[in-house]
Amino acid sequence: MPRPRIDLPKSAADIWLKLAAATALAILIAITASGFANIPGAIPFRFSMNGWPTPYGDRLPYLFLPLVGTLVFVLVQLLTLRVHRFPYPVRITHFNAASEYRSAIRMMRFLVTMLLLGLTYVEYQTVQVGLGGYETPGMWLVALYAMVMIAGTVYFLRQLYTPAEEVPTLQF
Predict the structure, then answer these.
(1) DSSP state of 6
(2) 13 and 106 Cβ atoms separated by less than 8 Å
(3) Which residues partner with 42 through β-bridges?
């Protein structure tokens, strides 16, 4: 049976998540554009678990994070248009389609927002290392980021796995 196609109205949460992702992407691109001219020829490729930069190399890969961020942002925007084609853990019917589609869209928007915030922070730290004003973020920031990502993912997966009411209820 084909899944129903529904035009879902955007809620305030959807608008805020999309706006937060677009803002993080804009900041990521702005940091890259302003930092590329100012950083020296050698920048760090990655950071160790304690936050210190490890290997240094050419600054051309510095442009990789904004390209990945833009690609992921655009891809998620396109995927939200085809939400009826996703593999869902529950059977999609006319009664539960709206709630399942909405949960899937919000989960994708949350994950892309968190990914873009992480990429923006890494790009900012790369510029700081290149300019010589770097301080380690500490393990608390990495742990906080991981906890928010895991908690958000668990929340949205739980919503997807919780079956919606099969019989629509009338509200008076």
Answers:
(1) -
(2) yes
(3) 58
- The letter for the amino acid at 29 is I
Q: Which residues of 90-122 are buried (b: 16+ CB within 10 A; e: fewer)?
A: eebeeebbebbbbbbbbbbbbbbbbbbbbbbbe
Structure tokens at 6: 């529904």
Output the pLDDT for position 26: 96
Q: What are phi and psi of 58, to 5 degrees?
A: -60, 155
Task: Read off the pLDDT of each residue in 161-171 and give the average, rounded to a whole number.
Answer: 54
- Averaged pLDDT for residues 161-168: 57
Query: DSSP readout, 73-131?
Result: HHHHHHHGGGGGGS--SS---TTTHHHHHHHHHHHHHHHHHHHHHHHHHHHHHHHHHHH
Maximum distance among all alpha carbons in the chain?
67
What is the pLDDT confidence band of residue 172, given thresholds at 50, 70 and 90? very low
The tokens describing 9, both together, are: 């109205």
| Per-residue pLDDT tens digits for 96-149 | 888 888 888 888 999 999 999 988 888 887 777 777 776 666 667 778 888 888
Which amino acid, residue 98? Answer: A
**115 token code pair:** 């990914």
> Quick check: helix, strand or coil at residue 9?
coil
